[in-house]
Amino acid sequence: MGLQIPRPIQRVRILLPYPPYSNEMTQLKPSCTHRKQIFLLGPSHHHYLTNCALSTHTHYTTPLGPLALSHSTIAALHSTGHLSRMTPAIDAAEHSLEMHLPYIYKVLARTFATEKEFPELVPILVGNTSPDAERMFGEILAPYLTDPTSIFIVSSDFCHWGLRFGYTYYLPSPSSSQSSSSSSSSSNLGTTATKGYSLKSKSQTPTSPKIYESIGRIDKMAIDAIESGSHSAFLDDLRETGNTVCGRHPIGVVMAALEILRREGRVKEEEGPNGGEAKGTRKGRFRFVRYERSSECVKVGDSSVSYGSAFAVL
User: Fold this and answer.
1) pLDDT at 14 over 80
2) Model confidence, pTM
């Protein structure tokens, strides 16, 4: 896409999709030499909770080797009384955290000579949190975001579209001239808001725009809301479209934290280039660098999952 990524990335917070293995997605690997802990936030898929939960394990095992967990930080977060503990069974069942672990290990192994030197992991499982709860957890995590020895990774993908996902929202074009581009690059996706509706199994196949183009517009609306830096704008977009962004709650927690830091003046919203940052990058706000879909839905019976990759510099 030709986007300038900050090199080296010294104060980046990363929003990653579930499959963080393609070359394009992993271009965001940060400079880890001065990191002491890695916060990994992911949505809960198998266990219903309305708060955030912490691991009870001493380490996570990956196919490449172990990753130690930060007992002191986990204990400090638990002592707030707002974060519970996961059972080992819940921890083992959740894939949103697990799928990032080999990638994290690989990046750290390229930076440090031994596993003992690796930054420690702080995994946080985020449940079905309310807007107020997301702001509360944002308050708790905000001091760690400002710590230059910490880095945050947020696990999420974007739209799960299809009858099998129970989500078939469709945005018709306001006019043929405003149809979305078929490109999967987020920079080429239309964002014009029109009133949408859900397709049924017997619905006639829409063509203006094609279903995959509508999905791209729905995702771009969410991406624009995230890049705006407004937690409430992101929540409003989700209410409007019902977009099945499964990491919406972890994203919301980190957006709330960043919003708090900006409001309190702990993050100065300077635009790059500034100290090696990417041109157009505003501190304390996410910027997306990649958008993909698993397939291009044309018929109502088709399905796809969308993925995005973004970073935020503090």
Assistant:
1) no
2) 0.85
